[in-house]
Amino acid sequence: MRAARGAGQPRRYNRAVRLSDFDYELPPELIAQQPPAERSAGRLLHLDGATGSFTDRAVRDLPGLVGAGDLLVFNDTRVIKARLRGRKATGGEVEVLIERILDANHALAQVRASKTPREGMHLMLEGGVVATVLAREGMFFRLRFELCDNLFALLERHGAVPLPPYIERPPGSTDEGRYQTVFARVPGAVAAPTAGLHFDDALLAAVQARGARLAWLTLHVGAGTFQPVRTEDVSGHTMHHEWYEISPATAQAVRETRTAGGRVIAVGTTSLRALESAAAGGEVAAGSGETNLFIVPGYRFRAVDRLLTNFHLPRSTLLMLVSAFGGPDHIRGAYRHAVAERYRFFSYGDAMLIERAPEAA
């Protein structure tokens, strides 16, 4: 399988893109701290990218909004228990958040400590786990986990669910199941593809009963998804890399859908970024690779017609992406409405279904 190509910069900028354009006021109490009682029990704001009009709906209305010939593309990555706490050999507290597992006993990780860990330092983590700092690589550290021949299994035993920083509580037993999609298959993510959290088996079956097809890809969501943009001119922002893979079956399903006049619906920004990265040559190509695709207004979408997504943080790269897809003014209006109507925001919150704006095609 040949490697699919990814793009690092948006295509066809038509104006300067400023960070302050993506700010909004969000009352803290609207940040969902717990998942809904049932996966598909959330609200759904349906936005027409052509007109900017929107409708308040429920996630369970989604089957009525898709039709025969449509294709929903899901991210089947599985969240690993990526957070470990402990102490440095010198005694100071330390927290490790795995970014990427490299092999059986090596990983890239964020390491939070009172002082920057030095090369060769031992980190004494929960469960008797010992990790050695090998080198610093940008914002991450390369670690070797001692006496370990399966890092995935070690994290499953001793790690904790890596809830996002805006969920202000420790993870509980409920999070092990609910911060994971029902179709999670390939371990490697350190954050959930949250649009997929709304689907249970009944909703998936109801969508298929409408004649829509389902397809799968993998993109391992990294901790960089929460990395803030620090430059007012967003062209100065360096986007994080994430690994993805698209099977020949999924690439063919996208091509068939578009040829037949159906709509390709990306379930989540991660699915959209993988599809658009794989379509750098004009149409979605099967393969695997790294993507640091940074989508801002002015980008022209090649692969995706509709986007199902949660609400995103102010001034974030994900808010820039949805603004590019639905139109910046339309997204601002929809977010003002969502705040006024007390929608629930972020990972455990409610969802939007966005029809692509004409200028984004």
Q: Topology, pairings included?
A:
Blueprint: E1 43-48, E2 54-58, E3 71-75, E4 77-79, E5 83-88, E6 93-101, E7 106-113, E8 122-125, E9 129-137, E10 140-145, H1 151-158, H2 173-178, E11 186-189, H3 201-209, E12 213-219, E13 242-246, H4 248-259, E14 264-267, H5 269-278, E15 287-291, E16 306-310, H6 317-326, H7 328-340, E17 351-355
Parallel strand pairs: 1-17, 3-12, 3-14, 4-11, 14-16
Antiparallel strand pairs: 1-2, 5-6, 5-8, 6-7, 7-10, 8-9, 9-10, 12-13, 13-15, 16-17
H/E element order: EEEEEEEEEEHHEHEEHEHEEHHE
Mean pLDDT over all positions: 94
Radius of gyration: 20 Å
Q: Residue ranges: pLDDT <50 for 5 or more in a row?
A: 1-14
Helix amount? 10-25%
Oligomer: single chain
Structural class by SSE content: alpha/beta
The rounded distance between the terminal residues' Cα atoms is: 29 Å
Strand line-up in the sheet with most strands: 2-1-17-16-14-3-12-13-15
Total DSSP helices: 7
> What share of the residues does DSSP label as strand, in percent?
25-35%
Principal-axis shape: globular
Number of strands: 17
Question: What profile does the largest beta sheet have?
Answer: 9 strands, mixed
Write a concise keyword list for the protein shown above:
nine-stranded mixed sheet, alpha/beta, 361 residues, 17 strands
Tell me what the structure shows:
- It is a single chain.
- This protein is an alpha/beta fold and 361 residues long.
- The protein has seven helices and 17 strands.
- The strands form three sheets. It has a nine-stranded mixed sheet. A six-stranded antiparallel beta barrel has the order 5-6-7-10-9-8.
- α6 (317-326) packs across α7.
- Residues 1-14 have low confidence and may be disordered.
